[in-house]
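Give me structure tokens for this 131-residue protein.
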Amino acid sequence: MTPAFHAVIFDLDGVLADSEPWWNQIDANLLADYGVTYRGEYHRNVLGVSYRLAVEFYKNAFHISAPVEELMRRRGQIATEFFANRVGLFSSAKATLEELRQMKLASRTGDEFGERLRASIPRADRNWKFV
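Here you go.
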């Protein structure tokens, strides 16, 4: 029997994993690279916005001279490390992903960060382990 679909697209945060508690630490690491001590005081200003809007906010709030593209790239590197090594999938997500893998369906996440994380993983290891 041929499946009714050939791929599944997931949003990463809140569906497969809960990254929200980690963003203050990710941003604190980013801002420390530019001499800023950050304790999450602007969390509400960057909650739910794109990388570009978040780093533009930080650049302006803390008078950082680095280009936005550099800040975006560095934030992505830090976030990728956090997701790969600290943020786990929801337990229910693991079972669902394994079932879909058994069905030989293509995998993608529907957000910028998920695809950046996926692209950072060697092709041989991408099979749902780090969707």
